[in-house]
Amino acid sequence: MEGANTSMHSSSSSTCRTVSSVAAAGLTAAVILFFTQQPTALGQSPQNSSNQQNGGILENRLPSTNAQGTMVTVPEDFANLKLAPGFLLNVQVYGESDFSGPVRVDNAGNITLPFLKPVHVAGDTLAEAQAKVAEKFQGEGILKNPQITIDVQQFATTTATVLGEVQSPGKVELLAPHNMLDVIGLAGGETSLAGNLVELKHVDASAHLQSSTYHYSRGSNGDAIRDVMVAPGDTVIVKRAGIVYVLGAVNRPGGYAMQEDGELNVAQAISMAQGMALQAKTGALRVVRHNSEGQSIDVPVSYKEMMNGKQVPPSLSAGDIVYVPISKTKAVLSASTSLIGQTTAATIYAVH
Q1: Residue-wise pLDDT tens digits, 275-325
Q2: What's the CA gap between 283 and 22, in Å, rounded?
Q3: What are phi and psi of 183, to 5 degrees?
Q4: How far is CA 98 from each of CA 52, 91, 95, 114, 231, rounded to the nearest angstrom?
Q5: Rounded to the nearest 10 degrees, how much is the dihedral formed by the CA atoms of 68, 69, 70, 73?
Q6: Residues facing residue 231 across a β-bridge
Q7: What does the buried/exposed string (b/e) look like for 300-318 if buried means 16 or more CB atoms within 10 Å of the residue's CB?
Q8: Whole-model pTM over 0.85
Q9: Which of 85, 102, 158, 336 is deepest in the core (most CB within 10 A)?
Q10: CA distance 147 to 130
Q11: pLDDT tens per residue, range 178-190
């Protein structure tokens, strides 16, 4: 007991120690705080011990602490943070307490300070907002050489939504714009059924929903979407790959995802179905597809010429059916009746 009391006395007498690194006009990519919690009364919660969700606005004071005495870091994208409506800012004018205090960015993207007209800061970094406010004070003749410091007390929308064929669909934390490749990575990357199209939905300054589609496949290096920026509040949808069905006298009938580059031809589809069965009627191979009016069209394919290199394997589109009929003669000779039951299966397969 005596040893325990000594330990408790030593812990309660520890003091708060904060180490921070600040660069780029008050911004930093990482602020690391090491501290030990000051003693509090039994059952009393320390002040400012955690971030709070309040009215849809994430409160994140900088620097931030928590009650467990753990290391806290500022997200790496904080240096690129752009102010937006809903942010609560703490504006400090050195030596001028009357002009200092908290101010909210309104729906128009402006902040209102004493003796100044509204200052538009939406879309600005903290450094840009500080320079703009200082210029306003100086331009109005209110202060000759104002020293302005602006900190973020509350963030507005700090998430983007990633849906579709990703490992962890939902919201991802995003303080500042990131390229689409990084955002998909934050959602765990694509699933094995992901196609080669990614849709980005964004609400512009006029509150109009804008939608853009980009080509990207798992097998590529990501250059097609590396320069596409996703901002907080945007939605990214990774489309599912188109499905091609291979049915009939094949060894593994079913549906096959058009992965990677999103292209598939008849020969590749048959190969993915592990080739034709012994009962296959190769001379009657055909592709069944639907035209623009929804009518079914049979497109005969010469398997012999395709295998001999005399015919280029026809390309397939999503929803096409490669059908290999069963030769009744071969079926009787092989004494196999199980194949007919297999033709009704349409399991969806994806190449991993």
Answers
A1: 988 888 888 899 999 888 878 898 999 988 888 888 899 999 888 999 999
A2: 74
A3: -65, -40
A4: 28, 11, 9, 8, 35
A5: 120
A6: none
A7: ebebeebeeeeeebeebee
A8: no
A9: 158
A10: 9
A11: 899 999 999 999 9
* Cα separation, 230 vs 204, whole angstroms: 12
Which letter does DSSP use for residue 241 in this model? Answer: P
Furthest-apart CA atoms within the chain: distance in Å? 101
Q: ω into residue 325 within 30 of 0, thus cis?
A: no
Residue whose pair of structure tokens reads 């109009």 in the numeric block: 208
Q: For residue 297, give the amino acid letter.
A: I
What is the distance in angstroms between the CA of the first residue and the CA of the last residue of the chain? 60
Residue 280: both structure tokens together: 């296959």
Token pair 């060894």 is at which residue?
Answer: 251
DSSP string, 2-18: HHHHHHHHHHHT-----
Please check whether residue 183 is in contact with residue 230, taking contact to mean a CB–CB distance below 8 angstroms. yes
Give me 162's structure tokens: 């990633």
Please list the residues that pair with 326 across neighbouring strands: 280
C-alpha to C-alpha distance for 190 and 235, rounded to whole angstroms: 15
Give me the domains of the chain, ranges plus CATH numbers.
81-155 (3.30.1950.10), 159-240 (3.10.560.10), 243-349 (3.10.560.10)
